[in-house]
Amino acid sequence: MITEDFAAYAARVRLGFPTPLPPEKAQEMLEAFMGGVAMDCLEAGTRLIGHIKSVVENGESLIACSVTDHDARVRCRGRFESPQNRVDVIINVLQYGLAKKELVRIVAECAKRSFVGYSTFSVEDLEIEEKEIIRLS
Fold this sequence. Notes:
The chain is of the alpha+beta class and 137 residues long. 27% of the residues lie in helices and 39% in strands. It has one domain (6-125). It has helices at 23-44, 100-114, and strands at residues 6-21, 48-57, 62-67, 75-77, 84-96, 120-125.
């Protein structure tokens, strides 16, 4: 059910590190990021989490993580298997209660807080907005 307080946000978070992160540290940071986004959303006024999901493709494997309820417990399939110089995370947040601009802020702040020691950082909004209405007749 989509109501007026529904908002979604999809983004790519790209981080570079000056020295390779051990795989366990990269995994810990990813899980802290996901749990942090959920907790920050709840603290800011999210009343219902539809889902918060992420995907990381690191060349060797696919890591898929999700948070689907208010306990903010992160569940991941896959793990980092080698040291990482770069981490690219695609995150998708579906929730009720906050506007998209709040989700944009929360994702960026949580990424900066969770992925400690980065040398490069960017967040790209992946939502495609139509500029023209397509009319079929």
